[in-house]
Amino acid sequence: MTYHFKCTLCEEEYEAGQVRYVCPKHGDEGILDTILDYKQIAATTSPRTICDSRDYSIWRYSDLLPLVNPSGSAPPLHVGWTPLYHAAEAGRQLGLDNLYIKDDGRNPTASFKDRASALVVATARELRVDVITTASTGNAGAALAGLAAAAHMSTVIFVPETAPQAKIAQLLIFGSRVLLVKGNYDQAFDLCLAASKEFGWYCRNTAYNPFTVEGKKTASFEMCEQLSHAQPIGGKGRDRCFRAPDRIFVSVGDGNIISGLWKGLRDLAALGWIDKMPMLMGIQAEGSAACYNAWKAGTEKITPVSATTIADSISADMPRDGVRAVRAARETNGAYLTVGDDEILAAIRDLARSEAVFAEPAAAAAYAGLVKAVRQGFVKSDETVVCLITGSGLKDIKSAMQVAGEGTRIEPTLEAVRKLKFK
Ligand SMILES: *Cc1c(COP(=O)(O)O)cnc(C)c1O
Ligand SMILES: [Zn+2]
To answer: 141-158: per-residue pLDDT in tens?
Structure first.
């Protein structure tokens, strides 16, 4: 698929192959958009062709991805085509008729990050590099470790030493070289960049590598395609196959997922495959709200914060994709909201009990944001709303146990059970 790059700050354009990561004019901040050749796409594929594909993974969208030979380079783990549930019970509680939950915890390493890592590993294979590196709060690293293991490639992962144990276990079990940084994610990020320059490792760092967003955009494609199954388009639009929701809730740390969703939707809109742009609702933790602050102040200048939140996957002092993330909400008529750690914990419990989807704190933040937005009157009852759950609750059981309640210890006798009260 032919493509070129365009700097999100100065709009300078670069040929594919001319630059690898960022716009040379802005140091490490000149994040690049990948511009596809929509004429070529329209000539090679169609919504129908994609809908009829039997490849139920992100690779059904290969014609919209910046790879030379996807069938040769895609790692074999199954990434994407995660379920989109009609959330009837949560919808009833919130007064929403058309609420959907997309459970991306159902990816092979149990988070949304597999989408980005799959594309980066495929790219690394095409570039014939030996070692891939990334900084991560845990999930991006676990995803890279897993996808690279599937492709038998070496990885070096930089994580804060405080990352949840389950995430560190994933890194280790897949055979990565794991560097536990005595510092936070932002420090791990900068260290990983410096090391990748020094040692020539291919760097997956979120947003710095332009293809993380390209992998993440596949979630938008899936959402719109799966929604067209849930709410078939009759009459003239019968062949459309892609139906955009009215609103999407997504949690935001570095801002690369919300940017990815937006990119996917812009691709579909540019191709004329969807007829409206959903409002993107970015949810941040109160203690890690740099994007929210910039959005609220009406600026694109991101001021770093000193991040603290239970939602480790969205804890970032300086969001690496902040400018695009703020634009994503602003230009789609969406908004940013913040939620407290207590609201996030309650959301883990409530979502598990209403829809049986077990989310890690960062993922549940999106649902907490939805609850808050409904209470504040942002959302109309007949809107079609998708809430994206980005990671599995099994990633961080310490947090879940704070709201799960307790088991009852008993003697191994029926007598002991009889003595208990059951509702
Ligand atoms: C990474 C991550 C996010 C946030 O994505 P950003 O691109 O950093 O905004 C949200 N939830 C989970 C579970 C994540 O791993
Ligand atoms: Zn630039």
So the answer is: 999 999 999 999 999 999
